[in-house]
Design goal:
The chain contains ten helices and eight strands. The strands form two sheets. A six-stranded parallel sheet has the order 3-2-1-6-7-8. It has a two-stranded antiparallel ribbon with strand order 4-5. The longest helix is centred in the N-terminal third of the chain and has 14 residues. 38% of the residues lie in helices and 16% in strands. β6, α8 and β7 form a beta-alpha-beta unit. It comes from Salvelinus namaycush (Lake trout). InterPro entries: HAD-like_sf, HAD_hydro_PyrdxlP_Pase-like, HAD_sf, Pase_PHOSPHO-typ.
Length: 243
């Protein structure tokens, strides 16, 4: 019986937003108003497509973008947590569900040397075209009214768990680690005995606190443990994994 760790990426594994970090590769580190003002609520991926198109228009190469993305810092304690996961793959599976993109996440995990910790990454597919422009696609479509149009993390997690069960893997517990509003939907799909780890001071913590106050005592929910460092999550994980 394994433990499953599910991570968000931006402001969770890394201590910033990869989609805004990339702006540092622009010489004046500023987008024109035409691009900035084109964002529509719930359609961040399409907006990032326009951002990356603008970056391509400035003749900024993929290598330059990569060199900038590789400087994004990991959140305190997360490298230690991922290193522990690598050393205990017989007992722990680990996935990332993120609204970033495949290219950014792959680059950042590789430069830190922790890609072996992660079994699968579920995020928006990205590639570079012949011109060297990054193109980003939406991960999927779904019917959830709570989530952005391109990604329902609850559906991704449910589909993953169902596929694993078909393959004979039934997790003893799931740890879900996140920070944002789009982490509430999957958090609400967790079972009693699972744990959701909202980052302290971020949106998910506030939403879970408000939800808990509305539901009152007696509801069978996963445990909620706030965190500021990956070391706190590591302590909980070590308590569950036979050493």
């Amino acid at each position: 019986m394994k433990t499953l760790l599910v991570f968000d990426f931006d402001d969770t594994l890394v201590d910033d937003n990869s989609d805004t970090w990339v702006i540092q590769c622009i010489p004046d580190q500023c987008l024109p108003d035409l691009v900035k003002n084109s964002y529509q609520k719930g359609r961040w991926t399409e907006y990032m497509g326009r951002v990356m198109s603008y970056i391509g228009d400035q003749d900024i190469s993929p290598d330059t973008i990569r060199s900038v993305m590789e400087t994004i810092p990991f959140t305190d304690g997360m490298i230690e947590l991922l290193t522990f996961i690598v050393s205990n793959k017989n007992d722990i599976d680990c996935i990332i569900i993120s609204d970033s993109n495949t290219v950014f996440i792959d680059w950042i995990l590789q430069v830190a040397g922790v890609q072996a910790a992660v079994d699968q990454v579920f995020t928006n597919p990205a590639t570079f075209d012949k011109r060297g422009y990054m193109e980003i696609e939406c991960y999927h479509s779904h019917q959830c009214s709570q989530c952005p149009v391109n990604l329902c993390k609850r559906k991704v997690l449910a589909d993953f768990l169902a596929g694993q069960l078909k393959g004979g893997v039934d997790y003893q517990r799931t740890f879900y680690v996140g920070d944002g509003g789009n982490d509430l939907c999957p958090s609400n799909s967790l079972r009693e005995g699972d744990v959701v780890f909202p980052r302290k001071g971020y949106t998910l913590e506030r939403l879970l606190s408000r939800q808990s106050a509305q539901q009152g005592e007696g509801s069978s929910n996963p445990r909620v443990i706030g965190w500021t460092s990956g070391k706190e999550i590591l302590m909980e994980l070590k308590a569950c994994v036979p050493l």
